[in-house]
Amino acid sequence: MNSSPIKLKQKLSPVAKKAKAVRDLAAANKRAPLRNESQIARRAAIKAGKNISGMDHDHYTNTFVSSSKNRAGMNPNKGGTKNE
């Protein structure tokens, strides 16, 4: 999330705001298993004494890689999100 000092809220109608809340919650819940997998791997790595500072868990290779490399996409069949 961008930490801009200017907080701009979307100007949505009450109906659109409710629909967006439902969509956002559904999208967040869809990612829950991946977040859980990342948390388990991160805790295990820290317990094993590995330095994973600034690294993200990559679900494709099941390893920790730098954040920028993970955004670029480790899966050759998908482009990643860095250049979207």
Secondary structure topology:
Layout: H1 14-30, H2 32-47, E1 55-58, E2 63-66, H3 67-72
Antiparallel strand pairs: 1-2
Output the keywords.
single chain, 84 residues, two-stranded antiparallel sheet, elongated, mainly alpha
Description:
The protein has 3 helices and 2 strands; from the N terminus they run ααββα. The protein is mostly helical and 84 residues long. The protein has one domain (14-72). A two-stranded antiparallel sheet has the order 1-2. The longest helix has 17 residues, at 14-30. The two termini are 16 Å apart. The mean pLDDT is 85.
Oligomerization state: single chain
**Roughly how many Å is the radius of gyration?**
17 Å
Count of discrete domains: 1
SSE order, one letter for each helix or strand: HHEEH
User: Beta-strand percentage?
Assistant: 5-15%
> What is the typical, i.e. mean, pLDDT?
85
Distance between the termini: 16 Å
Model regions low in confidence, pLDDT < 50 over at least 5 residues: none
Number of helices: 3
Overall strand count: 2
Helix content: 40-55%
Q: Which overall shape is indicated by the principal axes computed on the Cα atoms?
A: elongated
Neighbour order of strands in the largest sheet: 1-2
Question: Sheet bearing the most strands, described?
Answer: 2 strands, antiparallel
**Category by helix and strand content:** mainly alpha
